[in-house]
Amino acid sequence: MGKSKSKRRQADDEARAYGKLLRGSPQKLNLVAQTIRGKAANKALAELTFSRRRIAVEVKRVLESAIANAENNHQLDVDRLYIKEATVGKSLVMKRFRPRARGRVGRIRKPFSNLTVIVKEREESE
């Protein structure tokens, strides 16, 4: 006697991927996430491939995971997918210290972020 299966949080034509502990500040990650919101999945992948920002590699990995989830787990058409949501959240912050002059200390913050990408299948337009 286990607990009953929980209801699915997304609609039937949506798939999600979640990236945890991405090394970079949420503010910088959100700049990259803004560029792909609402775009077709293949165009967003192309844009992330040629982006010069370091965090774009991580965002591309999460987006590819969302596309794979849509194709393999939910049987959605890959050619009609677009990015419905790309939300960025704050995760832990590692604090490090560096000795400075006169016995003082300089604090170094190393922030981490979380990223959620939801892809949705477009309706057929005729």
Briefly, what is this?
The protein is of the alpha+beta class and 126 residues long. It contains three helices and three strands. The protein has a three-stranded antiparallel sheet.
Description:
This protein is α+β, with helices and mostly antiparallel strands. It has a single domain (15-121), classed as Ribosomal Protein L22, Chain A (Alpha-Beta Complex), CATH 3.90.470. It has 3 helices and 3 strands; from the N terminus they run βαααββ. It has helices spanning 26-36, 41-49, 56-72, and strands at residues 14-23, 81-99, 105-121. A 3-stranded antiparallel beta sheet has the order 1-3-2. A hairpin with a 5-residue loop joins strand 2 and strand 3 (105-121). It is flat. It starts with 13 loop residues before the first strand and ends in a 5-residue tail after the last strand. The mean pLDDT is 95.
Q: Give me the CATH architecture, please.
A: Alpha-Beta Complex
- As a whole number of angstroms, the C-alpha radius of gyration is 19 Å
Shape designation: flat
In helices, the fraction of residues equals 25-40%
Instruction: Give the strand tally.
Output: 3
Q: What is the CATH topology assignment? A: Ribosomal Protein L22, Chain A
The chain-level mean pLDDT equals 95
Q: Which percent band covers the strand fraction?
A: 35-45%
Q: Alpha-carbon distance between the termini?
A: 49 Å
| Helical segment count | 3
Kindly give the count of domains.
Answer: 1
Order of helices and strands: EHHHEE
CATH fourth-tier homologous superfamily: Ribosomal protein L22/L17
Structural class: alpha+beta
